[in-house]
Design a protein that fits this description.
The structure holds two protein chains of two kinds. Chain A contains eight helices and 14 strands. Chain A is of the alpha/beta class. In chain A, a hairpin with a 5-residue loop joins strand 10 and strand 11. In chain A, helix 3 packs across helix 7. The two termini of chain A are about 25 Å apart. By secondary structure, chain B is of the alpha/beta class. In chain B, the strands form three sheets. Chain B has a six-stranded mixed β-sheet, with helices on both faces. Chain B folds into two domains: about 90 residues, no CATH class; about 240 residues, von Willebrand factor, type A domain (Rossmann fold, 3-Layer(aba) Sandwich). Classes of the chains: A alpha/beta, B alpha/beta. Chains A and B meet through helix 1, helix 2, strand 5, strand 6 and helix 4 of A and helix 1, helix 2, strand 6, helix 4 and helix 9 of B.
C-alpha cells in the first residue's frame, strides 16, 4: 500500500471521487435573490400613438415602444417574479390580469402585451392624475408594485384649481412612473371610425384649456370675464395641446406627490435596471446549482493525472 | 436525438481534451534497464487500453454535463376530453350590481347585519362576483381545456390568449374583482373573442362562452361580419345570461308590438340573432347564483368531446446523469489504479 500513497495520481483520483460524492449530496446552495411583483399599467390614450421613438430606423409609437420594453422586461425578470398587466384611459385603470409568474407564463404575457392596443380604450379622456390615483387605490390592498407607463399628457388640460390629492395614498404603493416619449412635441395620429389613419390632430380638434368649474386665474386678469357666461374669458384658447411631448416635470411632480419613483423610458434594459434600483423587489430564497464548481475542480484533478 | 440541447454549448469545446488520454499516459513512468526483457503481457495491454477508454469517457461525461445537456421540453399528443373555450366576459357597469339590480349590500362574508350565517340567502353578491366564483370552479374542472379570456365594455379588451396555463386563467378571472368599466358593446367583444380561434387547429370542440347581463344592439355591418366569422370559426356558442330582476330576459316575447324592436329588447334580438346563425347555440338564463351553477355544470357535462391535446413534458436535465457516469468512471479508474505495479 505504501507506494500507492506516494502516487499523486491516486490521490487525485480519490479526491475527484470524493468531490463527486460530495456534489451528489450538496448539488445546490440556497441563495437570496430579488424577485418582483409588478403590475404594469399602460396608458392607452391617443397621445400614446405619437411616434417619437425609433427602432431600426423606423419611427414607432410610444405605445409600441412601451410594449416592446414590457416584453423584454418580462424576459429579463428573474423566475418567481410576477407581472400583471392593466390599462389606463379616461380617469381610471382596468386590470386585465393579476400578476402571473414570468417564467411559466411568459408566452401568455407575451401575447397579452402584444395585444395591447389603443382601441381597447373605453373612453377618450386622458386624466393622468386621476388615473394614477385610481390605480394606486386598486393596488393599495395588494402587495403589488406599480409600473405606471404614460407620457403624462392630460387631455383635456387640467384646471389647477382641482388637483388630485394623493396624500391619503402616498407611500402605500411602491413603484415607478415610467415616462414614455420625447421632450420635443410631435403630432398625434388621428384615426377614423374604422381604424384607418387619417392624418394627425390639428389645433381645432382638441380643447386647449380646461373650461371645467371655476377658473384658476384671478377674474380681473381674464379678458372678457363674465361670471356666468364666460368664466374663462371670451378669447378662444390657443395652445399646443394637439401635439404631445413627454411631460416629464409633471410626471416627476406626480411621482413626488404619490411616493413613487420616476424613470424615463429610453431602452428596455434600462427599464429592468430602473426596476432593480427602485428597490421594490422582495427577497426570495432560491436554490442555485453549484455543481459546476465541483466539476471544474474534478476537471483540474483529472487533467493533472495526464501531465 | 434532435431533442437534445445544451445550456452552455461553448463548454463543449472542452471535449477536445478527450484526446489527452491518447497522447499522455496516466501511469507513473518507471525506469527499466532493458524493455525487451519484459514479457508480453496481454492483460496489462488490455488494461492500458481500458484505462484510456475510461478516461476518455470520463472527459466526455464531464464536458457534456458541464455544457448542460438536457432534453428539450416536449409536447406529447394525447387524447382526452375537453375543448377550446373562449370566455367573453361582460365588464359593463351593471355587472357590479346584484341580481336584484342594486349595488351589493355590505360585504359578502356569508353573514347578515346581525352576524347570523345566511347560507347565501340574504348576503348579496354582485353578478360579477357570482360569475367569478363559478368560472373559477369551472376552470378547475376542465384539466385539458385551452381557455382564453376576452372582455368587453365600450371596447373589447384582449385579456388572455388560449392557454393551458391555469394560473394565468385564474389571474385573469381574479382581476375582474376590480370595478367594471363603461357600456356594453357586444359586437366588438364577439368579434374579438372569435379572433382568438384564428391560427388555432380545429380540433375537439370550440366554445364561445358569453357571460353577460345585458345585450346591446348590433349594427347591420357588424352583424354581417359576425355571421361570416361565426361560420368560419365553427364555434359552439353558449350564452350565460345573468338576468336582473324586472328585466325582460331573452325568451320573453313582447306584449306590445311597438316594443318589438332591437332598441327596446336588445336581449331578445341578440338571442334571435344567435339562433339564426345556424351554429350549435344554447342560452341559459340565470336569475341567481344557483341557476348559474346549474348552467355551468350543464356546459361542463356537454362539452366532453374527445380532444387531441398536447401534454407538455418539461425539459429534462441530463447533466445529473452525465455526472453519475463520471462518478462511476472515476471509481473504475481508481480501482484500476490499485492494480498498478510499482517499483520504488
Amino acid at each position: 500500500m505504501k507506494p500507492l500513497l506516494k502516487d499523486y495520481r491516486a490521490w487525485c483520483l480519490a479526491l475527484a471521487l470524493m468531490l463527486l460524492l460530495l456534489m451528489a449530496l450538496f448539488p445546490t446552495r440556497m441563495e437570496t435573490q430579488s424577485v418582483y411583483n409588478l403590475m404594469a399599467v399602460v396608458d392607452i390614450t391617443r397621445s400614446m400613438n405619437a411616434e417619437d421613438y425609433q427602432r431600426d430606423g423606423k419611427p414607432i409609437s410610444r405605445l409600441e415602444f412601451v410594449k416592446r420594453s414590457l416584453r423584454e422586461l418580462a424576459a429579463s425578470l428573474p423566475c418567481q417574479s410576477k407581472l400583471g398587466i392593466g390599462v389606463f384611459t379616461e380617469r381610471r385603470s382596468s386590470i386585465l390580469f393579476e400578476p402571473i409568474e414570468v417564467c411559466a407564463g411568459y408566452s401568455e404575457l407575451d401575447k397579452a402585451i402584444a395585444a395591447l392596443d389603443w382601441r381597447m380604450a373605453w373612453a377618450a379622456d386622458s386624466r393622468i392624475a386621476s388615473g394614477l390615483l385610481n390605480t394606486l387605490q386598486l393596488l393599495s390592498a395588494k402587495d403589488t408594485n406599480v409600473l405606471f407607463m404614460t407620457d403624462g399628457q392630460e387631455a383635456p388640460p387640467l384646471n389647477s384649481r382641482y388637483k388630485t390629492d394623493f396624500s391619503g395614498l402616498k407611500g402605500k404603493v411602491k413603484g415607478l412612473i415610467v415616462g414614455a416619449g420625447d421632450l420635443q412635441a410631435v403630432a398625434i395620429p388621428k384615426f377614423d371610425q374604422k381604424g384607418q389613419r387619417i392624418g394627425v390632430y390639428g389645433p381645432d380638434d382638441v380643447p386647449h384649456r380646461s373650461s371645467f368649474g371655476e377658473s384658476d386665474l384671478n377674474p380681473e386678469k381674464i379678458e372678457g370675464y363674465d361670471a356666468r357666461n364666460a368664466p374663462f374669458g371670451k378669447q378662444a384658447a390657443i395652445g399646443n395641446e394637439h401635439q404631445s411631448a413627454l411631460q416629464e416635470n409633471y410626471l416627476q411632480q406626480l411621482a413626488a406627490e404619490s411616493g413613487l419613483a420616476y424613470h424615463r423610458l429610453q431602452g428596455s434594459d434600462l427599464l429592468y435596471e430602473a426596476v432593480k434600483s427602485a428597490e421594490i423587489g422582495s427577497v426570495s430564497r432560491v436554490a442555485s446549482d453549484i455543481r459546476a464548481y465541483f466539476i471544474v475542480m474534478v476537471l483540474v484533478l483529472i487533467v493533472v493525472i495526464f501531465i | 436525438m434532435t431533442d437534445l440541447a445544451f445550456e452552455t454549448p461553448w463548454a463543449l469545446m472542452g471535449l477536445l481534451l478527450i484526446f489527452l488520454p491518447l497522447l499522455r499516459s496516466p501511469m507513473q513512468a518507471t525506469t527499466y534497464p532493458w524493455l525487451d526483457i519484459i514479457p508480453v503481457d496481454p492483460l496489462s495491454q488490455l488494461i492500458n487500453v481500458l484505462i484510456r477508454v475510461l478516461a476518455m469517457a470520463a472527459f466526455a461525461a464531464l464536458f457534456l454535463g458541464l455544457s448542460g445537456l438536457h432534453r428539450k421540453a416536449q409536447h406529447v399528443e394525447r387524447i382526452g376530453h375537453g375543448a377550446h373555450i373562449v370566455m367573453l366576459l361582460d365588464r359593463s357597469n351593471s355587472m357590479d350590481h346584484s341580481f336584484a339590480g342594486k349595488a351589493p349590500s355590505g360585504n359578502d362574508d356569508g353573514r347578515d347585519a346581525g352576524g347570523r350565517a345566511t347560507q347565501g340567502a340574504v348576503a348579496e353578491q354582485s353578478k360579477a362576483d357570482a360569475a367569478r366564483h363559478l368560472l373559477t370552479q369551472f376552470v378547475d374542472h376542465r384539466p385539458h381545456d385551452l381557455i382564453g379570456i376576452a372582455e368587453y365594455s365600450t371596447s373589447p379588451l384582449f385579456v388572455m390568449s388560449l392557454t393551458e396555463n391555469k394560473q394565468a386563467i385564474h389571474a385573469a378571472i381574479d382581476a375582474t374583482t376590480t370595478p367594471a368599466l363603461a357600456y356594453t358593446n357586444i359586437s366588438k367583444g364577439l368579434s374579438m373573442a372569435l379572433s382568438f380561434f384564428d391560427h388555432q387547429p380545429v380540433n375537439g370542440s370550440r366554445i364561445l362562452l358569453l357571460v353577460s347581463d345585458g345585450a346591446a344592439v348590433i349594427d347591420p355591418d357588424s352583424e354581417a361580419a359576425l355571421r361570416v366569422l361565426f361560420k368560419q370559426q365553427q364555434v359552439r356558442l353558449y350564452w350565460l345570461f345573468l338576468r336582473t330582476d324586472n328585466s325582460p330576459g331573452i325568451l320573453v316575447q313582447p306584449d306590445d308590438p311597438r316594443d318589438d324592436n332591437a332598441q327596446a329588447m336588445p336581449e331578445l334580438y341578440l338571442h334571435r340573432f344567435f339562433s339564426s346563425l345556424n351554429i350549435p347555440y344554447h342560452a341559459y338564463e340565470a336569475e341567481n347564483p344557483d341557476a348559474m351553477q346549474k348552467a355551468i355544470n350543464d356546459i361542463n357535462q356537454l362539452e366532453q368531446m374527445p380532444l387531441h391535446y398536447l401534454q407538455a413534458i418539461p425539459k429534462q436535465d441530463l447533466s445529473g446523469l452525465c455526472y453519475r457516469w463520471l462518478t462511476g468512471l472515476i471509481a473504475c479508474l481508481l480501482g484500476l489504479k490499485f492494480c498498478e505495479v510499482r517499483r520504488i
